[in-house]
TrEMBL record:
Top EC group: oxidoreductase
Protein name in UniProt: 15-hydroxyprostaglandin dehydrogenase [NAD(+)]
Family named by the database record: Belongs to the short-chain dehydrogenases/reductases (SDR) family.
Single GO term (MF): 15-hydroxyicosatetraenoate dehydrogenase activity
Coiled-coil intervals: none
Length: 264
């Protein structure tokens, strides 16, 4: 699928990776709903995009993705405004080991809910036109992250859910492809959370170790994650893929090998 002329919805769109993906989608000719809980950042983001692309190309919707009604409403408003939905990026995420239940809610529960809401609109066996869903995970969703155990659990969950629902979409002929993206460290405001006790709780004492890891592995530019997202949108064969993005290897894919069959 090409993004040109398509309608997209991106959560956590006001800054960081979400914002980079929004710009890439606009450059590729899509129109889109910018969904974010931060009204000030959202308005600023839209105002600056309007100057470059025109106000008709985006719609800012203030929404806390953990609020079921607000999230439902964001999908409803998007379809009401643009007439359809073709591309969904569940990107909003937080790093909060202290309020770990919130981390699960934002990073995993809301991604699952967003995926179901997107499928309800897009899946062909429900009267939709088909589409693409991209769920943002992390390299911490594939490997243990000693100083971010709950963040890591939430991102492992995103991969497990995305691969499973992708398999179901294929079996059920949904006409919707669902993939996940796992970046290493990316240069966004999220990285500042590592230096905050209110985010890290007891793990705050390890902040320098995380900073050393950043120095060792390097930090990616958000534009590379946006490029990976476009690759997944355009690759009509990808479904259930787990894209990894690192400084050493760039964009590549996790290979899971032969699936083990569990006896039941
Ligand atoms: N920055 C990294 O190093 C990195 C690495 C791998 C994966 N990721 C993932 O990429 C995604 C984007 O992260 P980022 O680095 O751009 O973070 P960021 O903090 O820069 O931006 C996140 C955006 O999401 C919004 N948001 C947070 N909670 C929300 C909620 N409940 N409802 C609606 N919007 C909400 C914020 O307002 C913000 O605009 C996240 O899922 C994150 O886990 C980030």
């Amino acid at each position: 699928m090409y993004a040109n002329g398509k309608v997209a919805l991106v959560t956590g769109a006001a800054q960081g990776i979400g914002r980079a993906m929004v710009e890439e989608l606009l450059q590729k000719g899509a129109v889109l709903a910018l969904v974010d809980q931060n009204c000030i950042a959202g308005d600023l983001c839209k105002a600056s995009l309007d100057e470059q692309y025109g106000s008709h190309r985006t719609l800012f919707i203030q929404c806390d993705v953990t609020d079921q009604e607000q999230l439902k409403d964001a999908f409803r408003k998007t379809v009401e405004h643009f007439g359809r939905l073709d591309i969904l990026v569940n990107n909003a995420g937080v790093n909060n080991e202290k309020d770990w239940e919130k981390t699960i809610e934002v990073n995993l529960t809301s991604v699952i809910r967003g995926t179901y809401l997107g499928l309800e609109i897009m899946r062909k066996n429900n009267g939709g036109h088909g589409g693409v869903i991209i769920n943002i995970s992390s390299l911490a969703g594939l490997t243990p992250a000693a100083y971010q155990p709950v963040y890591s659990a939430s991102k492992h969950g995103v991969i497990g859910f995305t691969r499973s629902i992708a398999a179901l979409a294929s079996i059920g002929n949904y006409g919707v492809r669902i993939n996940s993206v796992c970046p290493a460290f990316v240069d966004t405001p999220l990285l500042e959370s590592i230096e905050k006790e209110e985010n890290m709780g007891e793990l705050f004492k390890y902040k320098d170790r995380i900073k050393d890891m950043m120095k060792c592995y390097g930090v990616l530019d958000p534009s590379l994650i946006a490029k990976g997202m476009i690759d997944l949108i355009e690759d009509d064969a990808s479904n259930g893929a787990v894209m990894k993005i690192t400084t050493s290897r760039g964009i590549h894919f996790e290979e899971f090998g032969v699936q083990q069959k569990t006896k039941i």
